[in-house]
Each structure stands twice: as C-alpha cells, then as structure tokens.
Amino acid sequence: xxxxxxxxxxxxKIKVILxxxxxxxxxxxxxxxxxxxxxxxxxxxNNNYDPLKDSELNKLEYLSKVIISSEDNIVIYNTGSNLxxxxxxxxxxxxxxxxxxxxxxxxxxxxxxxxxxxQKAYREHNRWLNFYPGEIEENHKYFEQRINTLKEKYRNxxxxxxEM
Length: 164
What we know:
- The protein is 48% helix and 12% strand.
- By secondary structure, the protein is an alpha/beta fold.
- It has a 5-stranded parallel beta sheet with strand order 2-3-1-4-5.
- It starts with a helix and ends with a strand.
C-alpha cells in the first residue's frame, strides 16, 4: 500500500443537513444561508424521476449523488416523506464517510401554527376538502409522534435532531 497516496488523499468533510417539513424561507434566512441549499424536488426533476417507474430507493440515490458530489456544506429541504428515508440515506452515505449531521424539524410553535392554519383552512373550505371532522387534529398528532420517533431514533448517534 502506498502511504503517500493515502496521506495525500484529501478528506472531504462536509456538513449534511436535511429537513423534515421546514420551509425554504426558514433555511435561506437562517444560519445555513452560506450553505449550498438544494430543493429535493429539483433533484428529482433534474433526474427525470417518475414515481410510476422509479423506486423509492431511486429518489434517495439521486439525492446521495448530490451530497457526495458537493464540495460545500449542504442543506437539502423537502426531504424525507417517511422516517426510513433518513436511515436509508445514512446507509448510502456511509461508504463515502459522510453522515447526516443534522435533521431540522419545525419547532413546537411552528407545529402549533401549522395545526391552527390547517383547522382554519378546514373551517373555510371543508365542503371542498375530502377530510372528515377531526382528521386535521389526527394528522397533527401523527406528525408530533413522527418527530418524537425521529428524536428517539437518533438520540445516541452522530446525527442531531434540531427544532427550527
């Protein structure tokens, strides 16, 4: 083994930040403004992702390519429709010695506001919405459970869960 090659190999250590239901404006107006900011839906569009033809794994492979090829710290918003996506992405990044440093979730105040906005929209538009009474609240409760599950799952790992 040639030690010069090993020693001269630059280690690429970038910060990888993902979001779970955080608005783009919150990212752009935060301490992450100097990061490369990527919309996951743009990644899918640039790769001609077709939900009818491509697998869920394809989505995460496209995303991992963006992360692996990045030279800058990166924030990706609109990521993870299910919690397993974060685990799968972590596994894809491991061989490249990259980790998800942080997963940003809405803070309690924003989550409450989302509930209030949902309830208001339901009151004003329920005749056009296909929701039953109480479904908005059930969805909010389910979202709270998902955030708690995410926090618990990553509690003793290198990945932090931060409210924003």
